[in-house]
Amino acid sequence: MIKTEKVLHLNSSKGRKVRVVREHYVREQVPCGSALCQADCHNDSKVLSGDVTHYVVPDVGVVRDFLEILEFRELQGIVLTQTAYQTVQHTRGRRHYNRLRALLKDPRHDCVLFANEFQRYCYCPRDKGESQDKWHTRNVYNAAVWYYNHLAGLQPVVMITEDSEAISQFSALNSGVYVISTQEYLLSFWPDLQAAHDLYNSIAQTLQERESEVVEKVYTEHLPAEVLEAGIKSGRYIQGILSVNKHRAQHEAFVRYEASASKNTELNSDVLINGAKHRNRAVHGDAVVVELLPRNEWKGRTMALTEGQGEEQTLEDTQSQPMPTGRVVGILQRNWRDYVVTFPPLEEVQSQSRNSQKILVIPWDYRIPKIRISTQQAEALQDQRVIVRLDSWESTSVYPNGHCVRVLGKAGELETEIQTILLENCIHVPPFSDAQLREMPINTQENPWQMDSSEVSSRRDLRDTHLVFSIDPKGCEDVDDTLSVRTLPGGKRLELGVHIADVTYFVREGSLTDLEARSRATTYYLADRRYDMLPAVLSADLCSLLGGVDRYAMSVLWELDAETLDVCTVWYGRTLIRSSYQLHYELAQSLLNGEEVEVPELSQLKGPQRDQKMAELLQALETLTRVARHLRAQRDKGGALELEGVEVRAQLDEEKNITALVPKQPLEVHETVAECMIHANHWVARKIQESFPHQALLRHHPPPKQEFFNSLIDCAKARGFSINTRSNRALADSLEQAVDPQDPLVNKLLRMMATQAMSNALYFSTGACPEEQYYHYGLALDRYTHFTSPIRRYADVLVHRLLMAAIQLEKEGSPSKPLASNKELEELAHHINNKNRAAQHAQKQSTELFQCLYFRDKDSNIDERCVADAVIYAVRTNGFLAFVPQYGLRGAVYLKDREGQVVSVDGDGKCEWKAGTLQRYPDRISTCTSTGTHTFYLFDHVTVRISVQPSRCHTDTLCLELISNKPHCAVQPESQPAGRGRSELVQEVVRWAEEASLQAEEERGKKSKLSREERQFRQSKTPNLYVLLQEISELALLDLSVCQIRNTEEQTCTASS
Amino acid sequence: MAGLELLSDQGYRLDGRKASELRKVQARMSVFAQADGSAYLEQGNTKALAVVYGPHEVRGSRSKSLHDRAVINCQYSMATFSTAERKRRHTETLYPRSQIDIYVKILQADGGNYSACVNAATLALVDAGIPMRDYVCACTAGFVEDTPLADLCHAEESGGGTSLALALLPRSGNIALLQMDARLHQDHLDTLIEAAMTACKGLSEVLDGVVRQHLEEVSVLTRD
C-alpha cells in the first residue's frame, strides 16, 4: 500500500471554503472483476463474462446522464469506474445513485465496479489548474488502459465519453483502447438495438434543450439543502411526503406528516398545499419541505364531489374547516418512477405547436402533472400508451420535462391496460428466464424427481407415524400447508402438526430463482390471471404437498394437554411427509356434519378397513375443530377483530367461475384451517424472535389512530349505534352489536368503514422497532409473522430460512451462514411491504378494469343489468357516495349538475333534473325544488343506473346516475329480497354464474385477439382460491370496497332465504 | 447529494483502505536534544510530538510528592494550526497523580489524536530510558454496517458512527484504557474490542521496529 495525499476543497458547515488534505492509499492488488483475468485477482463477487466481444468503460458524463442506456441488459461487459460511481453519488440524487448500485448488484446485468482510484497504476493526481471534469475523464481513460493491459490485450476495451476533446486527445495516444462517443458506440456495436438508440436521442435532445432554454421564472427557486435541514431542525419547516388528491389533482395536495420529524405539536393533521404555485414543482410521492403560511391564508379541504378535471370550484361554502396550509420550499428527495402517458389528440397537438417538437403528454395517473417531451413521433404514437421518464423540472417551466422510453401498446386494449396497471404499480414480471429455469429440478414422466437419500436421513420421517391431510378449495394445485393431529401414547396429550411446503430446500439463497422471487416478493393476482412468484415446476408440483406422494416439509408440532389444550412443548424442523387425504372444504365440512359422503382416497377400499380409515379421519377432523375453537376463543379474549370472515366468501366471487360462487355459507372448517395457520405463524414468530432478537422478520399491525374512526362513529350514530374504539376488544364487541335486523347491509358497511380506518399490517425487522410495537392489532397477538405460504410470499421464504438458522443455532451454537443484518432485513421488509401494496392496488385496478369492460358494451338506457340497487354510505355537499352491492362498485352520485340543477324526486320515486337547492347535514342531504323536498339519509337504498364514462388518457370510469330513491328491488319484483324460496336463490346463483361466464367469454373474446408475444407475459390463469382465502383470513386489510360489497350482496340473499 | 459512504460494497473505505488496515505509521525518536526523551509520530495525517522530562524532583509544592511512587504529570495540547478549522489551544491533564512530565502536542489532527499521543508518548518514554513493563499502544476502531473499522481517520470519526479508543499492553494483552462515547449495541462490543486489539498489536510491531532501528542507529554512533 502506498500513501498519497489528495487535496480537496470542501464547504465547511459555516459556508466557507476549506482546504482539506485527505490521505489516499493506493495498492497494486485491486480486483478487476473479469473472468479473463490473468493475474489471479481475488474476484469473489460478480465477474464479467469472458465471452463478450469487448469491454466498455463509460466516462463520468455518460454514467451521469445516460445511465438508462447502460441499464439495457443487452449491453454487456460494462466496467464502471469508481470515479464515475462517486461522481454520480455526489452530483446526482440518492435515487440515481441507488439505481446505479442496484444495477451493479443485479447478477443479471453484466457489469462490474472497478475501484480504479485505489489502483496504484490507474490513479493519477489532479494537475494544477486542471478542471475536475478533465481530471475525471483522464482517470477513467487511465483505468481503461490499465484494464486493457491487465487482461493482456485479450479483450478489446472501448471507452465511451461525451467529451469530444477527450476523444481526439486520447484517440491519438494509440494505447489499445478505443475512445469513441456514446452515439458512435451504439451505432457501431449495437446497430440493432433500436430502443437504445431512441432512448439516447431522446435523452440527448432533452439535455440539449435544457441548456439552451432561458425563460422567465414560473416558480420560486428551491432553497439549498443546508437551509432546509437547518429549517427542519429548528421547526420552521416541515418535512413530509407529498400526496396529491386524486380527484382535484391540480389544486389540492397534502403533505403527510412524519410525526417524529417535527416538534411542532400544535399540528396534528396533514398540511394542505393549495394550487400549483405553492406546490412548486413537487410531484406526487416526493419528499418535500414545507413552510406554513400565516393563519389567515389557511384554507379548508374541498368537500364537494368533482366530476371532471380542471373544473374550477373554489366556492367557500364547499370547504371544510381551515386546516394548516403551506407552500413547498424545497425538495429533499424526488421519487419519480416510470409513468404511462397518452399523447393528446392530433388537433390539440397542432394547436399547441409553438414548437411542434415538444408535446405535452397526459399521464395515466391523475396525480401526475402533464409532462413535456420532445419527440418527432407524435403522430405515430397517437392512441398508444407510452412509458415516459421525468428528467427535470426547472423553475422556468410550467411542466416537467421528460423523455420517451418505450411504447406499451394501443390504448383501450385489454393487454395494454393490464400492462399499464402493472407498470403504474411498479410491478415487473417478465417470464422466467432460461437460466432461472435451468436451476429447477426436473420432474417429468420419463425422469421423475426423486428424494435425496441424505436428505431423507437428515429429516424427521412422519410418513408412517402421522396422518397428514390437507384441506383446500376444490381443484387447488399448489398446496402449501397440511395438517395432522393425533393423540400421543398415554392419552394425556395431543399432538397438533402444521406442515408447510419446504420451498427453501429448492430455492437456495442467492440463486437466480431466489433473486427473482425476492424482487417479485409475492405472487400477483389480477382479475383474470396471476403472475407466480416461483416457476410452476415448484409451485404446482415439487413444493406442493399433494396427496399420496412423498414431499419435503417444514413442520411445527405442538404437544397439547388433552384436557385444557394448553401448549406443553413445541418442535420445529424439517420433515418428510406423505399427505393421505387431499380434502376440500365442503367435503371436510360434510364429514364433520356427519353426512354420508364419498372420500375419493377411500373409494378403492371396502368394508371394515374403509370404516376404520374413515373413523380415523373423522376423529382427526373433530379434534382439529376442537383445538381451533379453543385457539379462537383465546384470541377473542385478547380482542381479535372479526373482520375477516366477511371477506372470505367475497373474494371468491372474483374468480368469475362457478365453483367459486359455491361457498356462500362460511364453513367452520375454513376458520379451523385459518386458526391453525395463525397459530403456526405465531409460534414461529416467537421462535425466531427469541433466537434473533435483532434480525427476525415479523409482521405487525399497528393500532389505528382514533381520529380515523370519526366517520365510522358518526355514521353509526346516524343509525343509533355507538361504537367504542378504545381498544380492539371494545371495537370488536361494539361492531358485534351494531346490527340492524331490517338491513344486514348496515353492519357490513360499518365493518367496512372500521376496516378502512385501520392501518395496514406490515413486515418489519425486530431490530428496527421497539418491542411494544410488535403487537398485531387485528389478530390480537403479541408476535406474528408469515410462515405458512412460502410458495406465494417471499416473506415466508425468509422466515423459513430464519427458522432453520434458529434450529441450527440451538443445535450447534452458531448459525452456519451469517444472517442478514437488521438493516438489510429492514430494507427487505420495506421492499416486500411496497410490493404487497402494489399487488393489492393492481388487483383492485384490474377488477375495476373488468367492471368497466363489462358495462362498456351494454347500453345503459336499455339494458336491465345496468340498473341496480345502491346504498348511501357517505354524504358530500353536492351528492353522496354509494355502493352497488350487486356489482361490488362504489362511486359518487351527484345531486347537482354543472348547470346548478338538482335532482328532484316525484311521487313514485322517479328522479328528474330541475332547478333547486341542496342542503347538506351530517347524516343526510336534501334537495329542494319547486315540486317539493326530498331527503336522502345514510344507509338509504336507492336505484342507480350504471354507465361507462370513457376516457382517453386514463382508465374508463363507471358513472352512477340516480333514477329512483326507492330500492331497486321495487322495480324488479322478482328479485325482491322478501320471501324468496330456496329455488329462487339457486336461480339467482345460476344467474350470477351465467353473468360471470358471460364476462369470462367476453374476456376470452378479447384474449383471442392478442398476439402471441403478449400471451407470453401471462404465466398461468385462474388464481388459486385458497391462497386468496388465506391472505384475507388473516386480515391483510385490502381496500375492501370491492370484496365487502360483493359479500354483502350474498348476505342479503342468504338472510332472505 | 448522497451522503458519504464510509465502507463501499467492495470493502474499501474513503481513503482506499480495507476495514482492518491501519494508516501508515512513521515515527522518529530523539528529535530534541535538550529533553530527556522525545518522539515524533505520524499516524496517517495525524502528527504528534511527545517530550519527556525526568524523572526529576517534584517541582512546585512538595506536598504533591508521593512517598512510594513517582508522580506523572502529563500535558496535552493541540497546535493552533492542527485542524482545518482552527481551534483554541487547550490543555488537559490526562493522568492525575503524576510525576514525570510528559508533554504531547498534536501538530496536525486527522482523527485518532488520542491514540497518536499515547503512541508518541510511549516512544518518548522509551527514549528517556524510563523502565516500562511494555509498550502502550493505542488505536481507535469504529463500527459501520456490522463491520469494525480499524484506525479511523477524521472523516470517519465525524461520520456519526461509534468510535472506540483502546490502549493495550500488547504482550500481556491487558487493556490500559477503553473509551467510547457514542452508543453501540452490546452485542457488537466484543467484535469492536477485538478489532481494536488487533490493530494495537499491529501498531506495537511498528513501534518496536522504530525503537530497534533507533537503537541500532544510536549504537552505531556511540561505537565511533
TrEMBL record, chain A:
InterPro entries: Dis3_CSD2 (IPR041505), NA-bd_OB-fold (IPR012340), RNase_II/R (IPR001900), RNase_II/R_CS (IPR022966), RNR_Ribonuclease (IPR050180), Rrp44_CSD1 (IPR033771), RRP44_S1 (IPR033770). SUPFAM superfamilies: Nucleic acid-binding proteins (SSF50249). Its cofactor is Mg(2+). The keyword Mitochondrion does not apply. The keyword Cytoplasm applies. It is an enzyme of class 3 (hydrolase). Residues 459-809 form the RNB domain. Its EC number is 3.1.13.1. It comes from the Eukaryota. It is found in: Cytoplasm. It catalyses: Exonucleolytic cleavage in the 3'- to 5'-direction to yield nucleoside 5'-phosphates. Keywords: Cytoplasm, Exonuclease, Exosome, Hydrolase, Magnesium, Nuclease, RNA-binding. Pfam families: OB_Dis3 (PF17849), RNB (PF00773), Rrp44_CSD1 (PF17216), Rrp44_S1 (PF17215). Belongs to the RNR ribonuclease family. PANTHER family: DIS3-LIKE EXONUCLEASE 1, RIBONUCLEASE. This is DIS3-like exonuclease 1. It comes from Cirrhinus molitorella.
Automatic annotation (TrEMBL), chain B:
Residues 21-90, 94-131, 134-198 form the Exoribonuclease phosphorolytic domain. It comes from the Eukaryota. Pfam families: RNase_PH, RNase_PH_C. Belongs to the RNase PH family. This is Exosome component 4. It comes from Cirrhinus molitorella (mud carp).
